[in-house]
Design a protein that fits this description.
Blueprint (H helix, E strand, L loop, with lengths): L7 H41 L8 H88 L1
Helix pairs in contact: 1-2
Length: 145
């Protein structure tokens, strides 16, 4: 039976950390998409909100106030999209670091498994050599008798 990888518990912990980082990255990417969608919708609303050519002073004031409010909202939405993008970049860096740490241990585990297989095969070969040596010795004894 092969011996267990001595850092198996640490590897499980690193994999959990990587999974958490991947989930955080997915959430951050979803936030980026939502923020970008809100900014795009506000930009579209601002594009169609026009000041009337004719009309009374109240209609003109309402249209100008609407455009001003939409402009302010667009600035807020663009800033929120920028913050969401920055958080997503941070989460991507976190995931990259977690993946790198996990991969380093996975490589050690692969090396350990290969060494364990080699030891196991050496043991089997030693048993086979012993059996073959005994068989050859018993065949010689029978031939000598």
């Amino acid at each position: 039976m092969t011996r267990e990888f001595p850092l198996a518990a640490l590897l499980r912990l690193r994999r959990l950390r990587e999974d958490d980082a991947a989930a955080a990255l997915a959430g951050a990417n979803a936030d980026v998409a939502q923020a970008a969608g809100r900014a795009a919708a506000t930009r579209d609303a601002l594009a169609v909100a026009q000041v009337p050519d004719r009309g009374d002073e109240l209609a003109l004031r309402v249209a100008l106030a609407s455009r001003a409010a939409l402009s302010g909202l667009l600035v807020e939405h663009d800033a929120a999209a920028q913050r969401a993008s920055e958080r997503a970049r941070e989460r991507a860096a976190d995931w990259t670091g977690a993946r790198r740490d996990t991969r380093a241990l996975e490589l050690l585990e692969e090396r350990h498994d290969e060494e364990a297989r080699t030891e196991e095969l050496r043991g089997e070969q030693a048993v086979l050599d012993e059996v073959a040596g005994r068989r050859a010795a018993s065949t010689r004894q029978e031939e000598d008798s």
